[in-house]
């Protein structure tokens, strides 16, 4: 497994994270097997969120991890707060952040989160309240590192003006198929294509400039939860390129798709959401692949993008 010493954050963190959003589909015993498979493959980082099946994903992870025998200090447990679907609102108020963390700790049967991310932006957030909440959570030892998810440049800047702790991660959607994070740079100032639209105010480069590690969510999904693009007949060129490069390295196509993300010099992590141990083994074979510069472009273009 490739690992990262995250700037201001966890050291020796696996480049591939197991996303636990789909864990409620497993029994506790199956979830324990999934966690063991991950750890055996070198995955030591687990992503969760208070909103995943209304806390069920955290509960299933907590129950499975408790019976796994794996030492707490050997893994990085991350959760996210702020999406309150049951109330139809996003909430970054101090009280909600603190009570969400307490709920996550109780459900995951742990005393601390290694990482807390603020999920999507609360449209009326007050950075002073976030700062107070982070100070309290850090002081009482409930959270070690802080970050955000799906948050663009200026809102991160606004947070950073008030929050004392470094914002270590930004979790964003990114894959060969959903590559908006990088497309705009190629088409800058080009009126003939929507790809030239800067939709996030240069979030990728901002994160690189400020030592914020990007975690790529849904690295194999087409669109927004549209199903896996690997083996999807709607992507013949992409699948042919994944196959050709996979054959060269002796790895499955999903591994090549993940290796494409890990090859980016921003040194991102990729969050795999599969709950199938064999699929996770395939994905982790990405660690064996160092794509050449040319292969990276070959895959990018096979996904339907064109050079200007
Ligand atoms: N921050 C956010 O807003 C946000 C949003 C969404 C997700 N996330 C995080 O990202 C994680 C991953 O999300 P995800 O599950 O949507 O995306 P994903 O990991 O890209 O999975 C997409 C699909 O790929 C399939 N797949 C994986 N390996 C395969 C293989 N070898 N052969 C065939 N199909 C394969 C999976 O099917 P199988 O399940 O059958 O393997 C799954 O349906 C989540 O668990 C969560 O932690 C974060």
Overall description:
With 308 residues, the protein is an alpha/beta fold. It has a single domain (3-302), classed as Alpha-Beta Barrel (TIM Barrel), CATH 3.20.20. The chain has helices spanning 28-40, 56-66, 94-108, 127-139, 153-162, 180-186, 203-209, 236-249, 253-262, 277-284, 293-302, and strands at 3-4, 13-14, 16-19, 45-47, 76-81, 83-84, 89-90, 113-118, 143-149, 167-173, 213-217, 269-272. Strands 3-4-5-8-9-10-11-12 form an eight-stranded parallel beta barrel, surrounded by five helices. Strands 1-2 form a two-stranded antiparallel ribbon. Helix 1 (28-40) crosses helix 2 (56-66) and helix 2 (56-66) runs parallel beside helix 3. The longest helix has 15 residues, at 94-108. The protein is globular and about 50 Å long. It binds NADP nicotinamide-adenine-dinucleotide phosphate. NADP nicotinamide-adenine-dinucleotide phosphate binds next to strand 12 and helix 10.
